[in-house]
């Protein structure tokens, strides 16, 4: 699955999300991905629930097209603090 497609699915499935998806193990390993997702939907939600929201946005692709997904999730405020 193309990284742009995964980004689109996440961004379409989560409120005001910004997703950056890369190949976790190099450009030739299509089913191991890494994603950084920033969304206000993560406010006041546990890390497990944040990851579940991303998995829900990806739907069946998590079992058919994506073998592994390394996730980093942030609220917009958390992401801004991380950048400083």
Fold and architecture overview:
- Helix content is 42%, strand content 24%.
- It has 84 residues and is an alpha+beta fold.
- The protein has a 3-stranded mixed sheet with strand order 1-2-3.
- Helix 1 (3-13) crosses helix 2 (47-58).
Keywords:
about 80 residues; alpha+beta
- Following the backbone from N to C, one meets helices and strands in this order, namely HEEHHEH
Spatial extent as radius of gyration: 12 Å
Q: Tell me the overall shape.
A: globular
Query: What's the number of helices?
Result: 4
Count of β-strands:
3
Task: Going across the biggest sheet, name each strand in turn.
Answer: 1-2-3
* Proportion of residues in helical segments: 40-55%
Biggest β-sheet, characterized?
A: 3 strands, mixed
Q: Give the end-to-end Cα distance, rounded to a whole number of Å.
A: 33 Å
Structural class: alpha+beta
Q: Average the pLDDT over all residues and give the rounded result.
A: 91
Spans of at least 5 consecutive residues whose pLDDT stays below 50 are: none
Tell me the β content: 15-25%
